[in-house]
Known about the structure:
Low-confidence stretches: none
Structural class: mainly alpha
Radius of gyration: 20 Å
Helix content: 55-70%
Order of helices and strands: HHHHHHHHHHHH
Largest sheet: none
Number of domains: 1
Mean pLDDT: 86
Distance between the termini: 6 Å
Strand content: under 5%
Amino acid sequence: MLITALSHFDQDITRSRQLLEHADTLPVGVLQRDIRRSAWMMSVGALDAYFCDAYADTIARVLRAREIQTEIEIPERLQNLRVPVIAIIRSNVNESWRWRIAARELIESDTVLSLEKIKSLFNQFFRGDHKLFGATSFDSWLVHPTSRHGLFGVSKNTYRKLTGSAKNTQRKKVKEKFEERFQLIFQRRHDCIHNCDRPKISITKSMVNKSDPVEKVIIDIEFLVHRFNADLTTEFPIYLRLLGFNGVTRNRVGA
């Protein structure tokens, strides 16, 4: 599952990197900084599009599974989704795409540019001890080969050695560091889109010069999407199984 959403994200994040590569061929100045800003905005847009697509994909698979096994009781939150009528009566698409289009229209005008929003959409599909961005949820992310010290504020080796209360204390710091990082990334995108990077009066110049880490923004966004994608791909089949859907149904909906 999520193959299309992740494929589109990978294509879009590549476009961000290509903007940066082009910017680096230009003399330092206004144009170069603006192209680097564009790379920042493109990468955040890729994240937003991915999570919207992933939500539509996931909801569509639940609705399709429920259509196959009508005796299964799905959670009230999903029962109360306001699916557009036109999406239900379409006759020019197959069953799986009909539900996908319906689910996509639920979030078409929304944005997923906060960690709280991501949690509110997706934590319903995760088991209690596997919730997103919780006390222990970063344990596996932090020690992943692609994780970055700057994203979590502690190295893999240091974190592996921690135990007991010291590890719990560090978990809180890791969570705060991660949240602060993405709040900055999302806010800067907002400033660029809505007021041409003038959150006050003057144009913000930090993190858009050739020596500044727009590259790291792209790396961190890519890390979040890929780690989330792996976790949801693991959790979603378990979610369907716990609701009562059998293996045949799960296979039919691609989970």
